[in-house]
Amino acid sequence: MNEFAGSQYVIEIVYLIASVLFILSLKWMSSPTTARHGVWAGEIGMVLAIAGTLLHHGIVDYKWILISLVLGTIIGVPLGRVQMTAVPQRTALSHAFGALCVTLVGTAEFYLRSPSVAPFMMAVLSMEVILGGLTFTGSLMAAGKLQEILPQRPLTYKGQNLVNFLLMGAAVVLAVWLVLHPEAKQLFPLMVLIALIFGVLLVIPIGGADMPTVISLLNSYAGLSAAAMGFVLNSKLLIIAGALDGSSGLILSIIMSKAMNRSFTNVLFGAFGQVQTVAAGGQEAKSVRSATAEEAAAILSAANKVVVVPGYGMAVAQAQHKVRELYDSLTKRGVDVRFAIHPVAGRMPGHMNVLLAEADIPYDRLMDMEEINGDFPQTDVALVIGANDVTNPAARNDASSPIYGMPILDVDKARTVMVIKRGMSPGFAGIDNPLYYLDRTLMLFGDAKSFVNNIVRELGGGH
Ligand code: NAP
Fold first, then answer.
1. Which of 69, 109, 239, 414 is the most buried (most CB within 10 A)?
2. The whole model's pTM is what?
3. Residue nearest atom 22 of ligand 1, based on CA coordinates
């Protein structure tokens, strides 16, 4: 075996190990107990993939690669340190970078090969730059909306879906034309430009609230465009990694849409979030019962079974460590405390699991919605901490509600419901929650962290 074939062999083996690690990473990340292994496997896989690529014979000069590595690290380190609540927009930015890279590589490859590009290669190249281009600008829009640099509300105008449809159609027509006439070089930038514009127009009519689902879908597009790039560059590793990314993003978007009882078309074209303010504004005054931390502590300590339902408010208030103190306090008194996790509680998939794991709440105390729902009628207290929509009984019994049909945690079936939130503001869906007006519901008004702290203090622990 000569030196070239030898190093090629090493590269292939390194890529194979990296591919296996990527697959294991996804598998392990599906459970909290193995998630850390999953992160490690993904990181080692990525280091191997980069190392293998750097061994390539085609590389004549490492200078530019080194500069890019330093630049990437300078951008990447602060991105890795963002607050947990900013992870969705951080993820969107990563997709934008990846998609920009795919689009640039695709463009370079086209001009290197043109005018004699084989039809299959041209089709794959077109798919690469169309998906890459729309993912780049779409992800930037999504990140901007989530970071509130751009307006969160859906920006809509008449005939919007038709315009988007025509634009996408134009990009596809250009792609087909280029497959038949790859020498028509001047059409290529036009196709990329249309994809870039399409990305902006696709995302602006979607409300900030739907962004996590959109980001997960854009993740899927980024994966597919990377897989297409794998065909162009003849890299099996890229094809595998892109396909994993593409399919996992799609599966996640489906899970999120299902948990919100929304169809993809509704997320993408429904301009959800527009009607919300109207619905929230039209409420007539109804009375609620509120209680103090002292009363809440007394009720909790008299209970046998307590189910804590965390939501977005717990995340914003960063109350998870106080919740852990509450868990310790109550458990010490012999109260059975469990946590009910709704699949879309918070603002990103697994949001509550991550926060509760950070506070070292034992995994076996975290219950999925399906596991816990049957237990609410035998639960003495359902303690809702900063959750709203995921507990809204209107989803079960009000056919006119925008969230009708969304699976919810049946907290209203518990003997007593206590809800910690700052006021009567609606949650993400922007709608009122009839749970708050039930006789068995007590509102505990305040910031999640300080209210839980006060309860812990009343129970005789904490600071
Ligand atoms: P939610 O319905 O958005 O409600 C959160 C509640 O927390 C608000 O009503 C707010 O009321 C309260 N809150 C805010 N800051 C607080 C603080 N510092 N202390 C105490 N309370 C605070 O949250 P959720 O029940 O977790 O539901 C999640 C929603 O996000 C669902 O509608 C879901 O469809 C959507 N969503 C989730 C994902 C995901 O992947 N998880 C993705 C997309 C969409 P006050 O202002 O009165 O305090």
1. 414
2. 0.79
3. 313
